[in-house]
Amino acid sequence: MKMIQCVSPLDNGKLTVFGMDVTRQHREIKSFMGVVPQENNLDPDFSVYKNLYVYSRYFDIPRKEAEKRIEKLLDFVQLTEKRDTLADTLSGGMKRRLILGRALINEPRLLMLDEPTVGLDPQSRHIVWDKLTELKKKGTTIVMTTHYLEEAAQLCDRLVIMDNGQILVEGTPEEIIQEHIGSDIIETKDTDEIRICLDKNNARYEVIGDMIQIYSNNPQIITDHLMKQCSLEKIIVRKATLEDVFLKLTGRKLRD
Prior knowledge:
Layout: E1 16-17, E2 20-21, H1 26-31, E3 33-36, H2 48-57, H3 63-76, H4 92-103, E4 110-114, H5 122-137, E5 141-145, H6 149-155, E6 159-163, E7 166-171, H7 173-180, E8 184-189, H8 192-200, E9 204-208, E10 211-216, H9 219-229, E11 235-239, H10 242-250
Parallel strand pairs: 3-4, 4-5
Antiparallel strand pairs: 1-2, 6-7, 8-10, 8-11, 9-10
Helix pairs in contact: 2-3, 7-10
């Protein structure tokens, strides 16, 4: 992310953004890029409006044009009524929306988002999702990092899952889930009898604690079959998610 933003030097190889070399054309690249960092870095002593106006000066946007854009952005991120409020007194969700608005002041072709909804309540998170979806429809290219797998499934047309700096898989959310899990997961209590039965039926499954997760594209057929042959007392059938894929590929142990 930092290399794309022309902040960190390349480790190796070549990197271009819209055909421009990040090592030689960083000023041009930054001119059409918007960045939403993981941490809130607003000017706390400035009002909502002044945060946007001061930032517009970095892009040499004429005053009248900047004022027009700010009015539109305040409406877009739903902060019009807070225009004269000090940034430091805003709620966490409002601060994230203001940072998003600030990142759009130069009407960027490329928007970089680092954990854009970290720490937000569900309502604020969904507002940000709605705004990012609107930007996608308008043709803005969005590159985002997130630990919220639901967020990735909601917003991403293409994603990569990384672990220890290595790309494990890439593709659309649907492709990744289908390839590594299947459409559905059947959950039941782990017993030796059920494991033997599943092995005899060549079922794809994983033992997680005292539960067994069975992966399937035909949950109804598999469930009926297992109920008859494996003496399952209680089962739960649910849709597979990106989180299931992530945990399967990276493990379930805590990381430092």
